[in-house]
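Entry for the shared binder. Reason: the reviewer on the internal report wants the predicted structure included alongside the sequence.
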Amino acid sequence: MDEKFILKARKELREDESRKKQALEHFREWIRKHPYIKEIRQDDTFLLQFLRTKKYSMDLAFQSFENYNLAQKKYAKWFDIQDKDFDKMMDLYQNGYIYPLRDRDEEGRKIIFIQLSRLDPDRFTSADAIRLSAVVSTALLEQEETQIAGTATIIDHEGMTMKQTSMFSVTDIIDFADCIKKSSVGRHKKLYVVNLPPFALFLLEAARSRLNDKLKKRITIARDMDDLKNYFDPTLLPKEYGGVHSEAEHKEYFEKYFKNVRPKLEEIKARVIDWNKVPGFKNSSENVGSFRKLEID
C-alpha cells in the first residue's frame, strides 16, 4: 500500500503491524472455537474488513462478523444470487445504474456513482438494484485502501419518477434498512444527494432529523451536477459531467477489477454454518431456514 494509507490507518484506526498481526491471530482463534461457524474464508483481506470497520475493537468485530453471515442468510433474496439473477444484475450495471468511479478522492475514498434514471422499472426490479449495490460494495472491500479510507456515494436523482419510487415496497425498505444496520461492513464516509425532486426533499429532511450531528455532516445536498462541483472534485466525475474519463471507461475499469476479485466473493458464499446451532433459527419441513425470531444485535 501507498504510505498515505498506512499513515491513515495508524491515525484513524490505531493500526500498526503488531496490532494487526495479533488481532488476526485472535480472530482466527475465535473462529476456530465458534459454535456454529464451521468453515469460512479467513484470509487477511477478508478479516481486516471487520477489524478496520470496528477500529480493532475485537468484540465489535466478532459481532459484526456474525451479523454479516446471519444477515446474508436471512436476506437470501438479495445475497443468494443465481446465474439468471447475475445476468439481469449485470444488465443493470451496463445500463449505468451504479458503478464506482475510477479514481479516489483527496481523502482516498472510493466513489460510488448512482444514476436513478437508469433503473428502468419496465426491465428491472428492486431486487436487481439491491443485489447490484451489494455486489459493488462487497467487491470494493477487497481493496485494503478502501477498507481504510472508506467510500463515498453520489446519488443523482435527475429523471427519477414516481414509478421508480413505487418499485420499492414497504417490506423492501424495512428489510434493506435492517440489513444495512445489522450487517454493513466498510466505512461509509460521505453521501452526496443531487437533483433531489421536491416530492422527496421532505423525506430526506425527516430522515436527517433523526441522525446525530456526525452523520448529518456526512450528507451534502447539491441542487444539480454543476452545484455538486462546489463540493466534489469534478475531474473525478464521468466525462459526460465534465470529468476526464467517460462513463464507459469508468465501467470498463471496474469490470476488469471485478473479474479478478469475483473468485474471492464466491469464497464468501462457500462458508459452512451449522444452522441447527444458531439461536433462533429453525428448519421447516422443506429445509428452508426461518429467522422470524432471530434478533441480530
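Summary line for the report: The first helix runs from residue 3 to 13.
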